[in-house]
Automatic annotation (TrEMBL):
InterPro entries: Isochorismatase-like_dom, Isochorismatase-like_sf, Isochorismatase_Nicotinamidase. It is an enzyme of class 3 (hydrolase). This is Nicotinamidase. Signal peptide: none annotated. The lineage of its organism: Bacteria, Pseudomonadati, Pseudomonadota, Alphaproteobacteria, Rhodobacterales. Gene3D superfamilies: Isochorismatase-like. One of its GO terms (molecular function) is nicotinamidase activity. It comes from Antarctobacter heliothermus.
Length: 197
């Protein structure tokens, strides 16, 4: 069984949003078209409380895109984004949300971020998605969405490590690309045996 995993296609990651990914909105129609070709559709939704620890505004003297050390490891600090219930946290208005079987929210604990759809940024705390997919008999994942080098990357690598057969469709992803993060992400995904198509 084959699932399409649509990562964080939300207003704040699209042009005009708080953490806009260049051309993030260009991928929406092609993602909608792909939904008809799979056995299951999962959407993820970045879903932070106000004052989340991944926001630069929560740390005195810090500015967005700085790297800090958190108890669970390094963390990039972001502009405030995807605040629970805010318009920026909504899915892109053209994304066919009604076709989703499952919507997985992540990053909802103040003290820890969650790039991956499978584990929070401590790489240990599960989101529950693995169990959902396995109990539905899903073994093959196609991943698309935003951003290639953060949430898509972490989700794809974790999925491959868990034993899923993972393909990332690069044309249906867009990247933030901070200091070479896109190249590093592509190398890391290849190393984890993720197919980059
Ligand atoms: C993401 C940075 C912060 C993403 C989410 O969806 O790639 N990036 N939160
Ligand atoms: Zn986030």
């Amino acid at each position: 069984m084959h699932a399409l995993i649509v990562i964080d296609v939300q207003n704040d990651f699209c042009p005009g949003g708080a953490l806009a990914v260049d051309k993030g909105d260009e991928i929406v129609q092609s993602i909608n078209a792909l939904m008809a070709e799979v056995d299951a559709v999962v959407l993820t939704q970045d879903w932070h409380p106000a004052g989340h620890s991944s926001f630069a505004s929560s740390h005195v003297g810090k500015t967005p895109f700085e790297l800090i050390e958190m108890p669970y490891g390094p963390q990039v600090l972001w502009p405030d984004h995807c605040i629970q219930g805010s318009p920026g946290a909504n899915f892109h208005p053209d994304l066919e949300v009604d076709r989703a079987d499952m919507i997985l929210r992540k990053g909802f604990r103040t003290a820890i971020d969650s790039y991956s759809a499978f584990f929070e940024n401590d790489h240990k705390t599960p989101t529950g998605l693995e169990g959902y997919l396995r109990t539905r008999g899903i073994d093959r994942l196609t991943m698309v969405g935003l951003a290639t080098d953060f949430c898509v990357n972490f989700s794809a690598v974790d999925a491959a490590k868990l034993g899923f057969q993972v393909t990332v469709l690069q044309d249906l992803c867009r990247a933030i690309d901070l200091d070479g993060s896109l190249k590093a992400a592509l190398d890391g995904m290849r190393q984890a045996s993720v197919t980059l198509a």
